[in-house]
Amino acid sequence: MKFLVLWELELARLSVEVVHAVMRMPEYAKKLTDQGKLEKRYHVVGKHGGAWIYDVSSNEELERMLAMAPVYNYSHYEVYPLAEMETPTEIVQPPEGTAQAEQHGE
To answer: Rounded to two decimals, what is the model's pTM?
Structure first.
């Protein structure tokens, strides 16, 4: 299961503790990447946060990973489940019987 997680620091809570939490994020990200749980991470330009793509086995696993993030208590999160994007020919199928009728010139 893949998820896009957008997180942004709550600037109203900015403190020395928050700065220390932010400084621990690269180490946290490396650990998740090494485990194969974090596919990509990006900085969102103009924001104090990021966009991370997780690959996890369950919603509960994702929840645990977010809760373990150093910035968890200082950030706002938006979580979006992701799905593979199929081509239209894989999604849209002709009505049943149409393919046979076309083969017989009907």
So the answer is: 0.75
CATH classification for the domain delimited by 2-103, as one of 3.30.70.1060, 3.40.50.980, 2.60.40.3080, 2.120.10.80 = 3.30.70.1060
Output DSSP code: residue 13: G
The residue-averaged pLDDT of 15-33 equals 94
DSSP 94: P
